Structure formats: structure tokens, C-alpha cells
Amino acid sequence: MTPPPLLYDPLSQQCTDNPYPAYRQLRDSDPVHRHEDPPFWALSRFADIWDAVREPGVFSSAQGLTFYPDEISTLGLAPTIVMLDPPRHGDLRRLIARGFTPGRVAALEPMIRSFVRERIAAMQETSASGGEVDLHLDFASPIPTFVLAHLLGVPESDRARFDPWVAALTQVQNSGFALEAIGATNAVAEMFGYFNDLILARRAEPADDLVSALTVAEVDGERLTDWDILGFCFVMVAGGNDTTGALISHGVMLLDSYPDQRAQIVADPALIPNALLEFLRIEGSVQGLARTTLAPVTINGIDIPAGEKVMMLYGSANRDEREFGADADQLDIAREIPRHLAFSSGPHFCVGSHLARLQARVALEELYASQPSIGVDLSRAQRLQSPFTRGWTRLPAVGIVG
């Protein structure tokens, strides 16, 4: 019998709109897949990816996180913390953690809650006047943009400049770092110039913001360089903005498809923290990132040479029936999830995971307290076209009441 044609094409709209049938096919019949154009390998089973990302001595981040060749020099920047391996990565991470503590993040909750309420009120006003509300663009996405601007010390007077930088940088990775093709060259240069000046100002006169905390963070007598801080600002904006917005939007979308579970959350908001893990598992904002092999490695009987890009398909791993059971494709907000890969694992476990969960928890607590039946119109929604992240460019909301 002739095997069915392979569905996995990471650059096709069919795959970016709905990659899950292709992921299942890979897990079942080709778990160590060789893709030819562009050339890379793809791992799709949970256990294989879990082990790989915890072995930085074999699977390196130092040559970039996508399957595009030479992405670091194409971007024209020195490697940031996410593109470093131990021990240097660990040293920088410990320094950054000094300014990015759970306590500092938790202190943001009242401010986030106030902003979320403002966004809900704005959605109600738009709906009452007959306008269309886009759940992602009008609610979910502005929340992390606002929080990042506050964390990084961007004053109110500069917020109008900050938003276009965020929009441009969230496209950079998805375009294969083709800055000119997506018109991001000026935005990237402007953002780096702005934060370079901000870092110098905070070194001279610290304020109560993350950049100031990073300028004085010290481990064993070592402080972060200006470039280290600048690179972390880039990572925060490019990696922590639309991914958090997508988590919020996916949560609303999923609960709209499972109204019984939405009713449970409306009745008991204490269910939200565990539900967030389930949202991330079943609709991960980061679908896959790459590593580069430093030595030959054999996985499931397949030999991968040294110097090869290997995509870690987190979105596939988190639906692997071998890890999560036969109902892995189904939402279960009460599911026990001892481990998952939505924030990766090992040395590169997402340093901002607690901030993302805080924003999403507050957003959904306030949203369902005000709009218990809110849903989305998937027939008019548009997916972000990216092989690496999963999100929205359009997500009309329905069911908003004044």
C-alpha cells in the first residue's frame, strides 16, 4: 500500500493554519524527519524533544533558533541570551534573574488588573456603538505590550513609538530575519538606539524599572554589559509580547469550543492557573524552535550528523499521545500536567514564564467576570503565518454585553 503524502510543510498556509494533522503523521510514522528545503531535521515526539533540549552539549542554541541559515549575522546583531550555550548562558541568566524576580513580577498585578479593566471597558464601548471588537488586537495583544513598556521603563510620552517597534520585531523571526523585506530595518535600529540611550541614562541615574535593576545586577563581581541588557530587551520584546497575547486569545478560543469548561471557570476562577497550562499544551504560542547539533547523534535509529539544524516541534510534543494519553487533542482544564514543553525545558526554560502566566491569569479572571459568555468568530479569523509561533492577525469577538 502506498503511504499517504507527507503533510508537513512548515512554510505552507495549510500547515500554519492547522499543523496538528501533520504533527500526528510525523509522530506516528516519521518522528525524526528530514526536511530538504530549507534543510533541517524535525523531532515531533515529546520524549525525544524533552531529552534533546536538556542536552545543550549536543543540541546547541549558539547558531540560532530557526531553520534559516546564518540567522544571527543576517540580523546583524551579536547573539542574545537565547542564542548562547552554557556556561555563558547560565552566567547571564543568573544576572538577569536578579532583576526579573517573581516578587518584582508579582508586584505588577494591580497595575495589570487596572489596564485589563480599561481594555474590557473599551471593548464594551466599541460593541455598544456597533463596532467590531477584535479580541486579539483590542484586548489580548495590548496587555503584554503595556506591561513590557512599563517593565522596561518606557515613559508614557514614548509609548506611541514603542508600539510600532513591538509590531516590527514580532515579524522579524517569522520572516527569516529578512528585515528589509518586511520593512523592519528602521524599526529595529530605532529601538536599539532608544534602549541604548535608556541604558546609559539608567546607569547614571537608576529608576524603579527592569533596565535599572539589570544595570546593577551582579554575580561574583560580574555585571551585565550594555550589550547584554540591550539583547535582553530585544528578547523580551520579540519573544514575550505576541506569545503572551496568543496565550490569552487561545484560552478564550478554546473555552468557546468547550462551553461546559468555560462555565466551570466562570463559576470558579481558581481553575484558571491550571487551565493556562492546558491552553499552552494544546495551543502553544511557540510551536517550534531549532538547535544545531555539535556532534553526531542517533534518535529512534536515525543518525543526525554534526552541524545540522534540528527543529524541536513543541506544538507536536505537547499533543503526543505517548505522554498525555489518548485524549491529548482534547481540552481538559483539570488535566494533571507534570511536565510540558510550552516554555521549553532545561537551560533555556523561558525566564519570563511567570510573567506570561500572571498576565494571562489576570486577563481571564477579569474578562470572564465581566463577559461570561464571550466567544470568537473563527469563520472570520486569520492566523499568523509562521512556522515558529502560533497566533492571530484577526480574531473577531462575539457575545460581548454592556
How would you characterize the overall build of this protein?
This protein has helices at residues 13-17, 20-29, 46-53, 71-75, 88-99, 102-106, 109-128, 135-140, 142-151, 159-172, 185-204, 210-216, 226-240, 242-257, 259-267, 272-282, 314-317, 321-324, 353-370; strands at 32-35, 40-43, 59-60, 218-219, 222-223, 289-293, 297-299, 302-304, 309-312, 375-376, 382-383, 392-394, 397-398. With 402 residues, the protein is α+β, with helices and mostly antiparallel strands. Strands 1-2-9-6-3 form a five-stranded mixed sheet, covered by helices on one side. A two-stranded antiparallel sheet has the order 4-5. Strand 1 and strand 2 form a beta hairpin. Helix 11 (185-204) crosses helix 13 (226-240) and helix 14 packs across helix 19 (353-370). The longest helix has 20 residues, at 109-128. The N and C termini lie far apart (59 Å). The relative contact order is 0.18. The mean pLDDT is 90.
Tell how many strands the DSSP assignment holds: 13
Beta-strand proportion = 5-15%
- From the spread of the alpha carbons, the general shape counts as globular
Number of helices: 19
Radius of gyration, in angstroms, nearest whole number: 21 Å
The span between the termini is 59 Å
Query: How do the strands line up in the largest sheet?
Result: 1-2-9-6-3
Average pLDDT metric: 90
Percent in helix = 40-55%
Which stretches are poorly predicted, pLDDT < 50 over at least 5 residues? none
Main sheet attributes: strand count, strand direction, barrel closure = 5 strands, mixed
